[in-house]
Amino acid sequence: MSERRGRRLRLSGAAVVGVAVLAGCWQAVAWQQPEILVPSPAETAAALRDLAWSGELAAQLRTTLSRAAVGVAIGIAAGALWGLASASRRWIDESGRPLRGLLLGLPPVIPAVLGTVWLGDAGAVAVLVVVVVTVPTAKVTVAEAARAIDADLLEMARVYRLPPLARLRHLQLPALVPALRSAASLCGAGGLRVAIMAELLVAPDGVGAAVAQARGNLATAEVFAWALVAVAAALVTDWLVARPAHRGAASRAAEPVGAR
Fold first, then answer.
1. d(CA 215, CA 59)
2. How far apart are CA 195 and CA 126, in angstroms?
3. pLDDT at residue 52 in the model
4. Which one, out of 23, 143, 213, 240, has a CA that is 20 to 30 A from the CA of 32?
5. Phi and psi (nearest 5°) for 108?
6. pTM for the structure as a whole
7. What is the rounded CA–CA span in Å between residue 127 and residue 129?
8. SS3 sequence, the chain?
């Protein structure tokens, strides 16, 4: 235990050093440029403080997080159903390949622009873009996990005519929970970034809209402050989602072989 704690402390120290180096490089560049081009860390911190005190930081961040969360939830649900269907029927998997390729290769800006024509509501457009980006990742992750389920168990369930809901509950869901956690980890922070991008293009509110407004006002320190907020929110989201998955994997690895 002490060795593990010492390793964590060393890694934390290395991370602090890395942050210090980045901040030093940032300050060195800021000394060479006017604030309108590259604000210093202190100027950015002052802009961040003003945003927090005015209440705009919490309001805009709450809006963006809610849109990203709804989009990721819908995308993972749709992708999981698609992945289950693809794993159970080969023809579904083959016929869905063009759609999966289209969603994977489609730049997020395209559904953002089309969404303004189809939906009108900017919040719904941001959710749509997150869903489009999330669905193929969730589909692939869940399909691979479903194909890895023991074929003998599935065959036994069919022989004993286990109802589909019971088969899903007792055989498929336990095997798919780690895959769903992995999909949430992959899509959580990415969905937040995509939501901010969509807001930057079409929304009147949210972090992306605040960045667009700051850019229009040439408030570069505020743009940097919002960038720090976006990075911090993405890191916290990834940590909150990935931590349970890592704990679950560690607990399964620690189980005795005979207990699994």
1. 19
2. 5
3. 94
4. 213
5. -55, -25
6. 0.80
7. 6
8. CHHHHHHHHHHHHHHHHHHHHHHHHHHHHHHHCCCCCCCCHHHHHHHHHHHHHHCHHHHHHHHHHHHHHHHHHHHHHHHHHHHHHHHHCHHHHHHHHHHHHHHHHCCCHHHHHHHHHHCCCHHHHHHHHHHHHHHHHHHHHHHHHHHCCCHHHHHHHHHCCCCHHHHHHHHHHHHHHHHHHHHHHHHHHHHHHHHHHHHHHHCCCCHHHHHHHHHHCCCHHHHHHHHHHHHHHHHHHHHHHHHHHHHHHHHHHHCCHHHC
Write out the two tokens for 35: 């604030």
User: Which tokens in the block code for residue 180?
Assistant: 């769903």
pLDDT along the chain (260 residues), means of 10: 61 73 88 88 93 94 93 93 87 88 87 84 88 92 82 70 72 78 82 90 89 91 93 84 56 43
